[in-house]
Amino acid sequence: xxxxxxxxxxxxxxxxxxxxxxxxxxxxxxxxxxxxxxxxxxxxxxxxxxxxxxxxxxxxxxxxxxxxxxxxxxxxxxxxxxxxxxxxxxxxxxxxxxxxxxxxxxxxxxxxxxxxxxxxxxxxxxxxxxxxxxxxxxxxxxxxxxxxxxxxxxxxxxxxxxxxxxxxxxxxxxxxxxxxxxxxxxxxxxxxxxxxxxxxxxxxxxxxxxxxxxxxxxxxxxxxxxxxxxxxxxxxxxxxxxxxxxxxxxxxxxxxxxxxxxxxxx
Length: 266
Ligand SMILES: [Zn+2]
Ligand SMILES: [Zn+2]
Description:
Elements: E1 2-7, E2 21-29, E3 36-43, H1 49-54, E4 64-66, H2 72-75, H3 78-87, E5 97-101, H4 105-113, E6 125-129, E7 136-138, E8 141-147, E9 155-162, E10 170-175, H5 183-189, E11 194-198, H6 214-224, E12 228-232, H7 240-247, E13 255-257, E14 263-265
Parallel strand pairs: 3-4, 4-5, 5-6, 10-11, 11-12, 12-13
Antiparallel strand pairs: 1-2, 1-14, 2-3, 7-8, 8-9, 9-10
Helix pairs in contact: 5-6, 6-7
The structure holds zinc ion (2 copies).
């Protein structure tokens, strides 16, 4: 399984990166052809990320999109994907792409497009409302949602799949989405190889039940016992050194910062 960071800037697109979006790929057996191929899952599709995603993947080849929640900085570019899949080359041959997200997902897509309430996007998306306790399959990858602590329905996503080096071994990634520190997010991240954690606040500028600051994100990594931590969703005006020194108050393991184009082999 491989993680490719498409967009990592917190709360908006920024000068160095689109807003939140992560491509996760793994090799598996195609049920139609019986042959092996790469399966592609995207977690979140924030502003500016669709174009950046395109440099890694033809939009026709996407297997599934999973939305952590429906704030605009995590799903604004879904309308670019919708337009491409409706009107782009080869679109008539495409089956609807799997779309996992909160209950309000299709309503929010209609709002962004300005579409009528009866627009169902059946040709473009096959929508599933994420449920805690359920798991969802994308080729060889399994998605399990965990309740996040954020002002809207929101999930952290645990993704497991075959190792790149040894496909018989399962590896794991947890993406927090947007959340404050809470027990369900610690549970979701428990023992993962890679924790992709938001750090939306600094300890000086924080509010409860919305985002983590560096200390809380570091605490998450330590409590969950993760292999390595990748910090993301840092606002474009926040100095990295500050985030790093906050995380280091609570986490002494491997630490990196997500940047657009970064690839992590699991
Ligand atoms: Zn956000
Ligand atoms: Zn949010």
